[in-house]
Amino acid sequence: MISNGSMIEALLYAKEAHRLRTRLFQKNFIYTIGKHNDIIGDNGEIIQKRGYGLKTFHMQTSVATGAWSNNRGSSDVESI
After folding, report:
1. H/E element, 49
2. pLDDT tens, position by position, 18-75
């Protein structure tokens, strides 16, 4: 699989998909990401896990308005 280039092609598609998802996410949401260090003691061992996680997360007002707008013309909204 790797020798015929399929793996490289798959990784390129995955990288492009990640780039597009990130751009869409940044367009629709306001967020901050922070580092975190988890230290876990087990049987006297200390394992330190480092990573990143969301610190704050907010939806853009325009996204919320578009998603929950009453101007969609849905009969379900009119019956409420």
Report:
1. strand 45-59
2. 999 989 888 888 888 888 777 776 675 667 777 888 888 888 888 778 777 765 555 4
| Confidence at residue 16, expressed as pLDDT on a 0 to 100 scale | 96
Amino acid identity, residue 54? L
Domain borders along the chain are 6-67
How large is the greatest C-alpha to C-alpha distance in the chain, in angstroms?
Answer: 63
What CA–CA distance (Å, rounded) separates 11 from 53? Answer: 24
**Count of all residues that appear for the chain in the document:** 80
Check: CB of residue 57 under 8 Å from CB of residue 31. Answer: yes
Number of alpha carbons in the 13 Å side-chain half-sphere of residue 50: 1
Q: Element (H or E) spanning 42, and its range?
A: strand 29-42
Question: Taking the model in full, what pTM does it have?
Answer: 0.48
